[in-house]
Task: structure prediction
Amino acid sequence: MLDKRSFSLSGHRTSVALEPEFWAALGEIAQAAGEPLSALITRIDAKRAEGQPLASALRVFALKEKL
Result:
């Protein structure tokens, strides 16, 4: 089951659907960094490869940070 959330990135609204476990991991990472989840997603968005879907970039980031 996917959980869909909406964010504002670069001045426009976008939605991302991820498994709840990935949202939980990203939330923990953001909390440990002392920033809101939206700020973490903005950072990941700015660094993702051209053409890489945001959902994929978020999953890869969460896996790398949690391993």
User: Anything to note?
Assistant: Strands lie at 3-9, 12-18. The chain has a mean pLDDT of 96. The longest strand covers residues 3-9.
